Amino acid sequence: MPETHVRPQLVWGPKKLPVPFAAAWSGEEPDISRLIARPFGAGLAYSDEQPEDRDEQGVLWARLSIAPGSGRPVFEAMHSVRQREAMLHRLCQVCGKPAERTEQGWLFLSQYTELTRALQDSPDQGFTSKPPICPPCARLAVRLCPHLTDPVVIASANPRVWGVSGGFYVPNHDSKAVPYPKDDNLPYHQHPDAERWFLASQLIVHLTRCTPAAI
To answer: What b-and-e string marks burial along 102-128, b requiring 16 or more CB atoms within 10 Å of the CB?
Structure first.
């Protein structure tokens, strides 16, 4: 994981709309060409694997070039490295600066329908792949983001890393690995056999001690 530092926020279009820090850009290309299946069912790897290709839990991550500002912003998608950085270091998903912790906890912005599903079993906890957000950026996102048709903000007093989202791969002939055609979520350390064949693209956080928040 690269060292965290605050970068200037990029803008897009004639209205100079701010592009979220965690958003992906069309010029940031994925690279899975070096994915291999290790011998004897040992799992997924890169043929030229580097230490930064795995997280602290040992899970392999999808490679994606880092070139914010290249091409067009993909507002509905998040860059895997910046999303993970924002989650781990409590950075605002929009401005990239340290997210402010309110008296209720860290703020998270979501669609109401998504939040309802997440909290339906336990009203004070849920799961999200959306990094935290600061109040000014939450107000900006609610006003400008076309993908937030029914937004809601919650505060979590104790968000904790839970696992990853991404997809499974299966071994093929000639030490190759092919994707299993289904996205999935994987909790850390609960399914070690499956974890070896998982390629992560987003970090998932367990939100606990949640309360509705005003911005």
So the answer is: eebbbbbbbeeeebeebbeeeeebbbb
Inside any domain, residue 177: no
- Rounded CA-CA distance 5/97 in Å is 8
- Strands of 93-159 (E only): list them: 106-111, 126-128, 151-156
Domain-embedded: residue 200: no
pTM over 0.90: no
Residue 197 belongs to some domain of the structure: no
**Domain total of the chain:** 1
Task: Classify residue 90: in a domain, yes or no.
Answer: yes
Query: Which residue(s) pair with 12 in the sheet?
Result: 17
User: Tokens at residue 98, please?
Assistant: 């340290």
Lowest pLDDT segment from 40-49, 88-97, 110-119? 110-119
155 token code pair? 């505060």
Q: What is the residue range of 109's domain?
A: 13-25+35-160+208-212
Angle at 146 between CA 143 and CA 148, to 5 degrees: 75
Nearest to 177 by CA among 203, 196, 201: 196
With a cut of 80, say whether residue 15 has pLDDT above it: no
